[in-house]
Amino acid sequence: MQKFQNILLKLNAIVSFEFRHKSIRPYFTNSTVEKQQQINNVEIIGTIHKHLFTQPSGYRSFLVLTKEPKNQFLYHMIGTRIPLQFRVGQRVRFVGYLNSQNKWNEQNELRQKVIIKANEAEILTNDSDQATDKNEVILKSEICSEIENTVNRIEFTVATKHIPRGGRAAGISLEESHRIIVYDKVLLDFVRKQLEKSDRVEIQGKVRYKFDKNSKGEQESSGYILANQIKKESK
Q1: Tens digit of pLDDT for each residue in 165-190?
Q2: How many whole angstroms separate alpha carbon 27 and alpha carbon 22?
Q3: What is the three-class DSSP state of 146?
Q4: Bridge partners for 60 per DSSP
């Protein structure tokens, strides 16, 4: 009887913990992804456009501007605890991982707030070899959703785990899903013929953002990964 009561206490503690931390990440899981090699890497080279905030813990957030092909410009939200003297207008290089936070719009369609959590940083000089802007993502994990297939595009999500070093979830293994969109015709054909849910893949691409209007006429931003290479991995 005592053992049974102890088990109930442990289960109640787990349920209570997950309920209190639901706002931190979209979900928790015991997926086999945790047991396999994963990659969640992002590299951004650009210019600091704006300092957003600094927390008492030393965590800071910036908007970093990158120049993309066809004279397009993107603003990336970067979060870091690295104690360098960053300032607006500096050329910088950040390396870290995607932090994708799920949300749903009024049509119940998945959208994501994408933050790049940087654990490496470098302030670049004008004569640096890394003078060209860069926006590169590499993800290696398993497809965790059904593949949504339309005429001109395909969308799915892949899951990765990480263990935060700070904040309320420090030391806890958390899983996030990252939204992948494919437009390239060759890749569309490959995904349709070769991939399905639970397949392991390696994806290379770029962080992209889309703006939608809600019923109030307000612009809402969401992020995703625009895939330019996909490889199927053995399980």
Answers
A1: 555 555 566 788 999 999 999 999 99
A2: 7
A3: coil
A4: 54, 80
- How many C-alpha atoms does 201 have within 13 Å on its Cβ side? 27
Distances (CA, A) of 198 to 77, 124, 142, 147, 193: 30, 40, 5, 10, 15
DSSP secondary structure string, 171-211?
T--EEEEEEEEE--HHHHHHHHHH--TT-EEEEEEEEEEEE
Cα 102 from Cα 115, distance rounded (Å): 12
What is the domain partition of the chain in residue ranges?
26-233
How far apart, in whole angstroms, are the C-alpha atoms of residue 113 and residue 101? Answer: 5
> What is the pTM for the complete model shown?
0.78
Cα→Cα distances 129→91, 120, 124, 133, Å? 12, 17, 9, 11
173 phi and psi angles, rounded to 5 deg = -75, 115
Neighbours of 28 (CB within 10 A): 17
pLDDT in tens, 81-109: 999 999 999 999 999 999 888 776 666 67
CATH number of 26-233: 2.40.50.140
Largest Cα separation within the chain, whole Å, is: 72
Q: Are 43 and 95 in contact (CB under 8 A)?
A: yes
